[in-house]
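User: My collaborator sent over this chain with a note saying "see what the structure looks like." That's all I know about it. Can you take a look?
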Amino acid sequence: MGDVTTILIVDDDPLVRSGLALILGGERTLEVVAQAADGRAGIAAVDEHRPDVVLMDIRMPVMDGIEATAALVARRDAPKVIVLTTFDADDYVLRALAAGASGFLLKDTAPEDIVAAVHKVASGEPMLSPSVTTTLIQQVTARHTPGRGKDALARIDGLTERERDVAMAVGRGLSNAEIAQELYLSVPTVKAHIGRLFQKLQVENRVQIALCVHDAGLAG
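Assistant: Without extra context I'll predict from the sequence alone. Here is the result:
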């Protein structure tokens, strides 16, 4: 990634696309390289333009944002995906995050916060606040399915003791700074541990780490 973060906007509402393009295009370090009206067209646009970040609507014709997100994050050089929604408690948002999205934005988010969110996700920082993460986990684990617990425990067993401590802290919704303070680590060290958790637990974001901890019955 260079000095400029490239962005693809995927939304079936042309007014939403235009509004986001105006907001993001006014930033020197951001560039909207393409727009698409559905998930399938969005995937094609990713193939053509290789954006760093995709702003992805959820409810769209042809292919919805959940299916498109899952297809994109499964790639080796996957872009970061931020899902867009009108409702913060929307079940579709939970499914999109479980599919690997890096976070979500409400469509009425203030322009400066949208810009900040794109910068944060592009730099590899988690976009979801601890309180939002906790709420999402509670809703997802309320629909716990048999078999997930056994699989989660098997993945957790492959962690070192310190990685397990960090994973459990993520599962409690703690931020990197809070984890560092609690475990007497530096913030860069916490980030390094979380990077290894992504690999070892085979997940794409902090929400999925927290889900794994909860499915394993280790959340405190």
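A starting point for your reply to your collaborator: The radius of gyration is 17 Å.
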